[in-house]
Amino acid sequence: MKIAFVIFDGMTSLDFLGAYDPLTRLKSMGFLKNMNWEVCAPTEQVTDDRGLVFTPTQVGLSLERFDLVVVPGGFVTRQIRYEGPFIHWLQSMEPCPFKASVCSGALLLGAAGFLKGRKATTHPAARVELAEYCEKVVDQRVVEDGPVITCGGVTAGIDMGLHLCEKFAGFDVKEKIRRQMDYYG
Amino acid sequence: MKIAFVIFDGMTSLDFLGAYDPLTRLKSMGFLKNMNWEVCAPTEQVTDDRGLVFTPTQVGLSLERFDLVVVPGGFVTRQIRYEGPFIHWLQSMEPCPFKASVCSGALLLGAAGFLKGRKATTHPAARVELAEYCEKVVDQRVVEDGPVITCGGVTAGIDMGLHLCEKFAGFDVKEKIRRQMDYYG
Fold first, then answer.
1. Among candidate residues B44, B66, B65, the one with its CA nearest the CA of residue B56
2. Are A57 and A24 in contact (CB under 8 A)?
């Protein structure tokens, strides 16, 4: 089990961290010992939409080798969905069995072509834009359709992360992680 | 309005981000235009409890000039609460009107002496340790006692951030931020 957490300039950090926290607990709490992950960016450093600076573990690495790729959102997704090299990089996740997005990260999965014929969701303010990429925009906290998992805005990433914990490790593990996160769920 | 977000090696990033997201929206969404913040660390880089790397905006800066200081938790708090230079640095927030912690960050506020005679809360797993620093450990999501605001584990930082948004900018602003975060609250 190998996860890529994609980060990029202008992202909303809580989109990323809300999914990162429960998913990485699969390993840190000892449930999936062979799991590992990378924080993958197109640039050497990443500055979020409010100035917070992260250093990725991998820069420009092709995403094809991962089991799950998680893409956060941010207002900047409205622009970067039209940036060829960035979307081309995201398209390298094509062979990955699971592709997930938080918030308006769904627009990026859409621009990369992964939502064709799929049900999906996003931040309430990005539903109109999302409609052009998918078959149906669903008003639901977490939506799973085949290999694609999308969720609502910002904090919905926590619910999606927990949903994936249950998918990969079962209900009891998910509940232990949820309680450790002191989350109502 | 000037906020210090304290970060340190071994912290749980979601503790930090859960408070950072709503509080920084006070500015990014245009409600408190004169607000600003720094991300303050004792070291040039910070690596969280699962390997994620952040670059602070200020290193070793005395905290006395801030209106609000927010301290995250993490398992490492059980050790670093005994590290003199680190706690001495945290004590520089003594004159700040508001001191806040997320999760086991309360142990650090406690070790710095700020919880004496106060009610406080923390992650459910850190309540026994917290009891030695404060008058009463309260089983409540967010606890405000004079200048000190503490909250439960990890995701409770979101609730504390929203609580502080309401305190500084009113209920309507808090509700707008909560909805933008797609959070049930």
1. B44
2. no
The residue ranges of DSSP E strands in B27-128, in sequence order, are 36-41, 46-47, 53-55, 58-59, 68-71, 98-101, 119-120
- Residue B184 confidence class, pLDDT cut points 50, 70, 90: confident
- Mean of all residue pLDDT scores within chain A: 97
* Whole-number Å distance between alpha carbons of A185 and A115: 26
Confidence (pLDDT) at B28: 97
ipTM, two decimals, is 0.96
For residue B41 the two structure tokens come to 């660390």
Q: Is a pLDDT exceeding 80 seen at residue A185?
A: no
Residues sharing a CB contact under 8 Å with residue A39, sequence separation 6 or more, in sequence order = A5, A7, A54, A56, A57, A58, B52
Which chain A residues have a beta carbon less than 8 Å from that of B18? 14, 17
Chain B residues touching A53 at Cβ < 8 A: 54-55, 57
CB contact under 8 A, A180 and B153: yes
CA distance A5 to B121: 32
Overall pTM > 0.95: yes
Give yes or no for a contact between B100 and B20, defined as CB atoms under 8 angstroms apart.
no
State which H helix or E strand residue B114 sits in: none
Domain boundaries defined on chain A? 2-180
Q: Are B22 and B162 in contact (CB under 8 A)?
A: yes
Q: By CA distance, what is B158's nearest residue in A?
A: A155
Long-range contacts of B125-129 (CB under 8 A, 24+ apart): B125/A180, B125/B153, B126/B73, B126/B77, B126/B78, B129/B78, B129/B104
Homologous superfamily (CATH) of A2-180 is Class I glutamine amidotransferase (GATase) domain (3.40.50.880)
What pLDDT is attached to residue B139? 94
Inter-chain touch A154–B183, beta carbons under 8 Å = yes
Provide the shortest C-alpha distance from residue A146 to chain B (in Å): 24
Cα–Cα distance, B70 to B149 (Å, whole number): 9
pLDDT > 90? residue B65? yes
